[in-house]
C-alpha cells in the first residue's frame, strides 16, 4: 500500500460518546459485512456487505457508505479531548472489521499514529493471517465467545466455533493486546448457568485475559429487521430477568475472572 | 498530596422531619413586613431616603413575628408559615393586587393568600402610589424603550418590579467580627468624616444608616435568644430543652459578636443570609464560597475535638433546609420565567484560593453531601472546576448529579477567571469569584453585578427584519428596508445586526433608568456595608458603592438564530431554492400550522375583543369557530404542501449542535452580534455592560411571544435553551453537542453562559460511568466551555410525573441555572424539559 490513508472501506454508522465498548469515552465506527448470522443480532443492517436500503421512521435510508481512512480521521479526531480525559479512543465494530483487511488495519494504524488508542469488537471469525495484520495496531480486543458447543453455535450463528476458539487463544498468547471476552447472553441459546460457566472457564484459560462481560439480550434491533423486510427470528422472547443475570454472573465468577454485566 | 475524607454520612431523623414539615402546606403570602414598612415610612417622610430604609428595616425587625420551628438547630424565619414569603410594596405592588384572586390557582408557583392578608395589604397599598421604584423607573425610561418592552423585545421586569439582589456579601468577615465589629468600623469612619467634606451629607447619612441596620440585626437575634429561652423553659423533652438552650446561647452571641465555633458561625451566617432578604426583595442573594469562609471554624473545632463530622453535616443540612424556607412571590409572567419558587441562592464549593492553589477541602465534600441529603432546589449548588481540581471531588460531584437532583452545576475556572480579568477584575479577585443566581460569576463581596438585568430575545429582531421594524402595526424597530428587496445575505444579516443593535440600545436605556430609580429610592444600607468598598466610599451599592460595577443582561436564542440565518443564507441566497417572498409568507402563516392551544386562545380573545369594541358581539359558537380556525390554521392544502416542503428543506440543512465546524463558527459569530454590542455600554454606577448567554426558563414564556422563525420553529413554541442546540436537532450525542457549544466564545460572555444536558441515569452507572461522566465535563472544559449542568432522569419518569404528580412531589429537575420541583412547573415548561434531547446510551 503506497498510501494507506487512501484505503477505502465500507461502514454503515459512526457513534460518538460510546462508553460500553472499551475503556473511556469512545467513537465506534461500524463496518459493514459479517460472516456470522446471529439470530439476536441488533445490527442486522451490518450483516450484508452490500449497500442496502432500510426503512427508518417511514423514510428509506441507504445503509452502507464507502469511505477512506483520510475521510474518517477528522471525524475520529473530533472527540480527542474526551479520549485524552477518559482513556478512550476508537473502537471498530460491525459487522465484522476482520472482513475488511485492506481497510481496517490502515484505519487502526492511522489512529494510533495520532496517539489515540484503538479497540475492535469482533467475532474472531477470520484466518489467523488476517488477524495478524490487525494486532500491531490494536490496544484492546473485545471478542465474543458465544457458546462452547460448536453445533449449537452453528445453529444460532451459522458458523461453528472451532476457529473462533483457536483465534482467541492465539490472540491471547500473542501478548500484543489487552483481550476481554464478552458473552451475549441469549435466552434459549446460552442462558443456563452451566453454559455460561463453561465459557467463563475457557476465557479464564486464555493467558492474560482478566475480564469477562455478560451482555444481556435486548430487543432494540427488532425494528430494524422490519425496516429491512426481514423476519425477526427471536420472536417475542422475554428479556432475561435481573436475578437470573445475577445468578449467571455468580457462575461466571467461579472462573476467577473479573466479571460484570454490561460492557 | 492532600487527601480528603470522602466517606458518606447518613441523614439524621431530624432532617427527615424538617423536610416533611417544609412541604406540608402550600406556601403563603404574609403581610407583616409590608404593614410595618408602611408604618415606618409614614413617620419618616422628612428624612433622607437611605435613613428611611434603615429605620424601616429596624422597625420591621423589632416587630415582625418570629418563629422557631420544631427540630430546628439553626433559627431565624422570615415568615410564620414555612416556605412562605413577605412582600415588598416599595418596589411595586399593583401586579399583586391585580392577582390577589389568581395567585393561588395559577400554574407556576402558586401561593396561598388569606382574606385577612389581602385586607391588610389593601390598606397599605394606597400609600405607595407614586412612591415605588418601578414608577420612578418608568418615568426615567425613554418612550421607545417602553414601547419595545410592551412589544416583548426584551424584558427588564426583574429589577423593574423587585429589588436587585444578585450579590454576595462578605460573610467571612461578618461571621468573624460580628455586627459589633462593623459598628466599630462605621463609628471610626464617622469620626473621620469632616462636616466640610464635599460628600459629607450623603456619607454621614449612609454610615448612620448602617449603624441603625447593625443594631436592628443584633436586636432581632436577641429576640430569638429570648424566644428560644422561653421555649426551653416550657420544653419537657430534655434533649430538645438542651438544644433550645444552646440556640438561645448562640443567638445571644451572634451575629452581634464574632463566632468562635462552627455552630455559632452557621447561625451567624444564617441570620445574615436571611436578613438581607428581609431588607429587600432582590433575589440571588448568593452565599458564595461557603466552603472557604466556614472552613476555619470547622477545622478548628474538629482539631479541638469539640465537633464531629456528623454534627457538622447535620448543621449544614439544617442550613440547606433553611435556604428553602425563604420564598418570594413574583408576578404571573415573571413566575413563569423563574419557575420553581427559586430564590437562586447560589452556594459554591471548590475552585482556587486567591493565591491560585486548589481550594477544595473537607467542607466542600460535606456541602455535596448536604445536597444529597436534602435534595432540594436551594441552595443552587455550584462547583468550581479547574485543571487542579482533585478527581475524587469531581467523582463525588458526579454522584450527586447521578441522584437526578440537577445539582451541582459545574463551572470552569479556566474560562471564568480570564473572562473576569478582561473586565478589569484583579487576578486575586478573579480567583476568588463565586457564582451568583443562575450562572453569573462575580468577584466575591466586591461586586454589584446587576446580573440578570434583562432577558433579551435574539429572535425578535429577526422578525423585525421581515416586517421592516413593524410589530403588530406599530413601528417598534428600525426601518431596515423591504426584506424582499435585499440582494445578498450580507445585506440581510446587516439588517438583523442593525435591529439587534437598536434593541440593545433600548435595553440599555431601560436598565439604566431602573438603575437610577434604585439609586434614588432603593438604597440598601444593610447589604451594602458588607460589600467592599461601600463603607470607604460612603454610599450604597445602588449608588455605586461597590468596588466592581456591572450590568449583565442575558441574550438567548443563539441556536435558533444560527439555524435560521443559515437557512435564509442557504435556501434563499446561495441555492436559491426558495424566494424571500415565499419564506416570508411561510413565516407569516406559521408554516401552515395552527397556533398552540394557548396562543389560539389568546388570539381568539383578541379578535373577540376587537369585534366587541366595534359593537359586534359574538356568540359562543362563533367564538369556538374562531378558536378552531386558529388551532387548525387557515392555509389551503396546496399552501400547506409548499410549507411542508420548505420545512423539509430546512430540516435537511446542517444544524448547530452536531460538531460541524462551519455551522458552529457561524453560531459564534451570531452570538457576537449580541455580546460585542452589549459590552459597548455603561451604567450609572460607572460600570460596564457585559453579556450573559442564558434564558433561565424564560425561553418558554418568551417563546410564546415569538412568531415562527426561519429555522423551522413554529410560532409560540419554546426557544432553544441556554447556549445549547435546539431540542432534537443535536443528533450525534453529547460529545458532538458539547463540541458545538464549546465553539462559542464563552470568555466574552463574562456574565455567564448556560449549557443544559440531559442524561439518562444509565450513562452514569457504576464507577466507570462516573469516571466517564467526569471526563466528559473535563473535556468540554478543555475546549473552553464555561458551564455545564445535567438533568439525570429518564423520559419515562418525567412523563409519569406529569400523569401522577402526587407521586413526584419531590422530583427535582434542572430547569436552567437552578433546580426546581418538577410538579410545580407549568405544563409547557415540563414539556420543554422532556423534549430537551435525552443523551442516553444504549449500546449494549
Summarize the structure.
Chain A is an alpha/beta fold. Chain A has one domain (11-261): TIM Barrel. Chain A has nine helices and eleven strands.
CATH architecture of chain A: Alpha-Beta Barrel
Major sheet strand order of chain A: 5-1-2-6-7-8-9-10-11
Give the overall form of chain B: globular
Instruction: Report the structural category of chain A.
Output: alpha/beta
Strand content of chain A: 15-25%
Distance between the ends of chain A: 35 Å
Our count of helices of chain A gives 9
Nearest-angstrom radius of gyration of chain A? Answer: 18 Å
The biggest sheet of chain B amounts to: 6 strands, mixed
Backbone structural class of chain B = alpha/beta
Q: What is the CATH third-level topology name of chain A?
A: TIM Barrel
Number of domains of chain A: 1
Features:
heterodimer; A: 263 residues; alpha/beta; TIM Barrel; globular; B: 844 residues; six-stranded mixed β-sheet
Question: What does it look like?
Answer:
The complex is a heterodimer of chains A (263) and B (844). By secondary structure, chain A is of the alpha/beta class. Chain A is built from nine helices and eleven strands. Chain A has a single domain, classed as Aldolase class I (TIM Barrel). Chain A has a nine-stranded mixed β-sheet with strand order 5-1-2-6-7-8-9-10-11. A two-stranded antiparallel sheet of chain A has the order 3-4. In chain A, α4 links the parallel β7 and β8. Chain B has 844 residues and is α/β, with parallel strands linked by helices. Chain B has a domain of 70 residues. Chain B has 34 helices and 18 strands. In chain B, β16 and β17 form a beta hairpin. Classes of the chains: A alpha/beta (263), B alpha/beta (844). Chains A and B meet through β1 and α2 of A and α31 and α32 of B.
Amino acid at each position: 500500500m503506497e498510501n494507506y490513508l487512501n484505503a477505502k472501506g465500507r461502514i454503515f454508522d459512526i457513534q460518538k460518546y460510546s462508553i460500553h465498548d472499551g475503556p473511556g469515552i469512545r467513537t465506534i465506527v461500524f463496518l459493514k459485512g459479517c460472516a456470522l448470522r446471529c439470530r439476536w443480532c441488533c445490527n442486522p443492517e451490518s450483516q450484508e456487505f452490500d449497500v442496502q436500503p432500510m426503512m427508518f421512521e417511514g423514510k428509506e435510508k441507504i445503509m452502507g457508505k464507502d469511505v477512506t481512512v483520510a475521510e474518517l480521521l477528522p471525524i475520529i479526531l473530533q472527540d480527542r479531548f474526551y479520549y485524552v480525559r477518559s482513556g478512550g479512543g476508537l473502537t471498530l465494530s460491525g459487522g465484522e472489521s476482520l472482513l475488511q483487511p485492506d481497510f481496517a488495519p490502515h484505519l487502526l494504524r492511522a489512529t494510533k499514529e495520532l496517539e489515540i488508542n484503538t479497540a475492535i469488537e469482533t467475532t474472531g471469525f477470520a484466518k489467523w493471517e488476517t488477524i495478524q495484520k490487525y494486532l500491531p495496531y490494536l490496544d484492546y480486543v473485545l471478542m465474543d465467545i458465544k457458546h462452547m458447543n460448536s453445533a449449537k453455535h452453528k445453529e444460532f450463528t451459522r458458523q461453528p466455533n472451532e476457529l473462533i476458539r483457536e483465534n482467541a487463544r492465539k490472540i491471547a498468547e500473542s501478548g500484543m493486546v489487552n483481550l476481554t471476552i464478552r458473552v451475549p447472553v441469549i435466552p434459549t441459546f446460552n442462558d443456563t448457568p452451566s453454559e455460561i460457566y463453561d465459557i467463563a472457564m475457557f476465557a479464564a484459560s486464555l493467558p492474560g485475559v482478566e475480564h469477562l462481560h455478560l451482555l444481556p439480550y435486548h430487543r432494540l434491533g427488532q425494528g430494524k429487521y422490519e425496516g429491512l423486510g426481514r423476519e425477526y427470528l427471536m420472536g417475542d422472547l422475554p428479556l432475561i430477568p435481573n436475578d437470573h443475570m445475577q445468578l449467571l454472573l455468580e457462575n461466571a465468577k467461579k472462573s476467577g475472572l473479573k466479571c460484570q454485566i454490561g460492557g | 498530596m492532600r487527601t480528603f475524607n470522602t466517606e458518606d454520612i447518613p441523614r439524621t431523623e431530624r432532617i427527615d422531619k424538617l423536610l416533611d414539615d417544609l412541604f406540608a402546606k402550600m406556601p403563603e403570602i404574609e403581610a407583616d413586613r409590608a404593614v410595618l414598612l408602611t408604618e415606618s415610612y409614614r413617620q419618616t417622610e422628612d428624612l433622607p431616603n437611605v435613613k428611611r430604609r434603615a429605620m424601616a428595616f429596624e422597625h420591621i425587625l423589632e416587630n415582625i413575628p418570629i418563629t422557631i420551628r420544631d427540630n430546628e438547630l439553626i433559627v431565624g424565619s422570615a415568615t410564620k408559615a414555612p416556605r412562605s414569603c413577605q412582600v415588598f410594596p416599595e418596589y411595586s405592588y399593583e401586579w399583586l393586587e391585580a392577582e390577589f384572586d389568581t395567585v393561588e390557582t395559577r400554574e407556576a408557583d402558586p401561593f396561598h393568600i388569606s382574606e385577612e392578608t389581602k385586607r391588610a395589604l389593601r390598606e397599605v397599598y394606597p400609600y405607595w402610589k407614586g412612591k415605588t421604584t418601578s414608577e420612578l423607573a418608568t418615568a426615567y425610561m425613554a418612550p421607545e424603550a417602553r414601547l419595545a418592552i410592551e412589544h416583548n423585545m426584551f424584558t427588564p421586569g426583574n429589577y423593574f418590579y423587585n429589588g436587585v439582589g444578585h450579590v454576595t456579601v462578605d460573610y467571612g468577615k461578618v461571621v468573624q467580627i460580628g455586627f459589633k465589629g462593623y459598628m466599630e468600623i462605621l463609628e471610626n469612619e464617622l469620626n473621620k468624616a469632616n462636616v466640610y467634606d464635599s460628600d459629607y451629607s450623603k456619607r454621614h447619612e449612609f454610615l448612620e444608616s448602617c449603624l441603625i441596620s447593625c443594631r436592628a440585626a443584633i436586636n432581632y437575634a436577641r429576640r430569638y435568644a429570648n424566644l428560644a429561652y422561653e421555649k426551653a423553659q416550657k420544653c419537657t423533652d430534655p434533649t430538645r430543652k438542651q438544644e433550645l438552650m444552646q440556640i438561645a446561647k448562640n443567638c445571644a452571641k451572634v451575629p452581634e459578636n464574632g463566632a468562635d465555633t462552627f455552630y455559632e458561625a452557621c447561625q451567624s451566617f444564617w441570620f445574615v443570609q436571611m436578613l438581607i432578604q428581609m431588607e429587600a426583595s432582590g433575589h440571588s442573594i448568593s452565599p458564595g464560597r461557603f466552603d472557604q469562609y466556614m472552613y476555619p471554624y470547622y477545622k478548628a473545632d474538629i482539631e479541638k475535638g469539640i465537633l464531629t463530622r456528623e454534627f457538622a453535616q447535620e448543621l449544614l443540612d439544617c442550613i440547606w433546609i433553611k435556604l428553602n424556607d425563604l420564598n418570594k412571590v413574583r408576578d404571573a409572567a415573571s413566575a413563569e420565567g423563574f419557575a420553581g419558587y427559586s430564590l437562586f441562592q447560589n452556594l459554591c464549593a471548590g475552585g482556587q484560593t486567591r493565591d491560585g492553589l486548589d481550594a477544595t477541602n473537607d467542607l466542600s465534600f460535606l456541602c455535596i453531601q448536604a445536597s444529597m441529603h436534602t435534595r432540594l432546589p436551594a441552595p443552587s449548588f455550584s462547583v468550581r472546576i479547574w485543571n487542579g481540581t482533585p478527581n475524587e471531588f469531581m467523582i463525588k460531584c458526579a454522584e450527586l448529579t447521578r441522584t437526578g437532583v440537577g445539582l451541582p452545576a459545574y463551572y470552569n475556572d479556566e474560562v471564568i477567571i480570564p473572562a473576569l480579568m478582561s473586565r478589569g477584575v484583579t487576578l486575586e479577585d478573579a480567583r476568588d469569584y463565586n457564582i451568583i443566581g443562575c450562572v453569573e460569576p462575580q468577584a466575591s463581596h466586591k461586586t454589584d453585578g446587576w446580573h440578570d438585568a434583562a432577558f433579551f430575545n435574539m429572535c425578535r429582531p429577526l422578525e423585525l427584519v421581515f416586517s421592516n421594524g413593524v410589530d403588530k402595526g406599530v413601528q417598534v424597530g428600525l426601518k431596515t428596508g423591504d426584506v424582499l428587496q435585499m440582494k445578498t445575505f450580507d445585506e440581510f444579516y446587516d439588517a438583523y445586526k442593525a435591529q439587534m443593535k437598536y434593541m440593545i440600545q433600548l435595553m440599555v436605556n431601560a436598565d439604566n433608568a431602573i438603575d437610577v430609580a434604585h439609586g434614588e429610592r432603593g438604597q440598601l444600607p444593610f447589604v451594602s456595608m458588607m460589600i467592599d468598598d461601600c463603607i470607604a466610599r460612603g454610599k450604597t451599592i445602588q449608588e455605586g458603592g461597590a468596588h466592581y460595577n456591572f450590568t449583565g443582561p442575558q441574550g438567548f436564542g443563539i441556536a435558533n438564530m444560527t439555524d435560521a440565518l443559515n437557512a435564509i443564507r442557504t435556501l434563499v441566497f446561495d441555492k436559491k431554492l426558495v424566494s424571500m417572498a415565499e419564506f416570508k409568507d411561510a413565516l407569516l402563516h406559521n408554516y401552515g400550522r395552527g397556533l398552540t392551544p394557548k396562543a389560539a386562545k389568546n388570539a381568539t380573545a383578541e379578535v373577540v375583543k376587537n369585534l366587541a369594541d366595534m359593537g359586534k358581539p359574538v356568540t359562543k359558537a362563533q367564538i369556538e369557530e374562531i378558536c378552531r380556525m386558529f388551532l387548525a390554521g387557515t392555509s389551503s392544502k396546496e399552501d400547506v404542501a409548499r410549507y411542508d416542503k420548505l420545512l423539509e428543506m430546512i430540516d435537511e440543512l446542517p444544524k448547530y449542535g452536531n460538531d460541524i465546524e462551519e455551522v458552529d463558527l457561524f453560531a459564534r459569530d451570531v452570538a457576537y452580534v449580541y455580546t460585542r454590542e452589549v459590552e459597548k455600554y455603561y451604567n450609572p454606577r460607572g460600570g460596564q455592560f457585559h453579556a450573559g448567554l442564558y434564558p433561565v426558563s424564560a425561553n418558554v414564556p418568551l417563546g410564546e411571544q415569538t412568531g415562527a422563525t426561519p429555522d423551522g420553529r413554529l410560532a409560540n413554541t419554546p426557544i432553544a435553551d441556554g447556549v445549547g442546540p435546539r431540542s432534537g436537532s443535536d443528533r450525534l450525542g453529547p460529545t458532538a453537542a458539547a463540541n458545538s457549544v464549546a465553539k462559542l466564545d464563552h470568555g466574552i460572555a463574562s456574565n455567564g453562559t448556560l449549557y443544559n444536558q440531559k442524561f439518562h441515569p444509565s450513562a452514569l452507572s457504576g464507577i466507570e460511568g462516573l469516571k466517564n461522566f467526569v471526563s466528559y465535563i473535563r473535556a468540554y472544559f478543555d475546549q473552553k466551555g464555561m458551564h455545564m449542568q445535567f438533568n439525570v432522569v429518564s423520559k419515562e419518569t418525567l412523563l409519569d410525573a406529569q400523569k401522577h404528580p402526587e407521586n413526584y412531589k419531590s422530583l427535582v429537575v434542572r430547569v436552567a441555572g437552578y433546580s426546581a420541583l418538577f410538579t410545580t412547573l407549568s405544563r409547557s415548561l415540563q414539556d420543554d424539559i422532556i423534549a430537551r434531547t435525552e443523551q442516553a446510551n444504549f449500546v449494549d
